[in-house]
Every structure is written in structure tokens, then in C-alpha cells.
Write a structure and sequence with these properties.
single chain, 66 residues, rod-shaped, signal, 1 helix
Length: 66
């Protein structure tokens, strides 16, 4: 009975470890995807802010010309 229990506990630990490693791999890929999306978002935000700045400058110059 004692040996049976020990084998059961070991098998449970192995299953848990397998599951845990799979989960951590998934988490890593999710983290990488999130990093990529945030980088893309930040790049888009920076581009839009520079565009807005140039537009505001353009409006100022056109205002002085006219």
C-alpha cells in the first residue's frame, strides 16, 4: 500500500511538472506577443504624435504666410 501511494504521488508530480512546463511555454509566447504588440502600439503612437506636431507647425506657418 505504501509503495502504491508513493508511485501515485510520483506520477502526479510528473504530470504536474509536464503541465507546468507547457503552461510556462504558453506564458512565454504570450509575453512575447504582448511585447511585440506594445512595441507596435508605441511606434504607431510616436508616429501619430510626430505627424500631429508637424501638422500644427504647418498650420502655424500657413497662418503667418496668409
Amino acid at each position: 500500500m505504501q509503495i502504491h501511494l508513493h508511485i501515485l504521488i510520483l506520477s502526479m508530480q510528473i504530470i504536474y511538472l509536464k503541465h507546468f512546463t507547457q503552461q510556462s511555454c504558453k506564458l512565454k509566447t504570450i509575453q512575447m506577443k504582448m511585447d511585440y504588440t506594445t512595441r507596435v502600439f508605441i511606434n504607431q503612437r510616436d508616429q501619430s504624435s510626430t505627424k500631429e506636431a508637424s501638422q500644427s507647425l504647418g498650420f502655424k506657418t500657413s497662418g503667418t504666410d496668409g
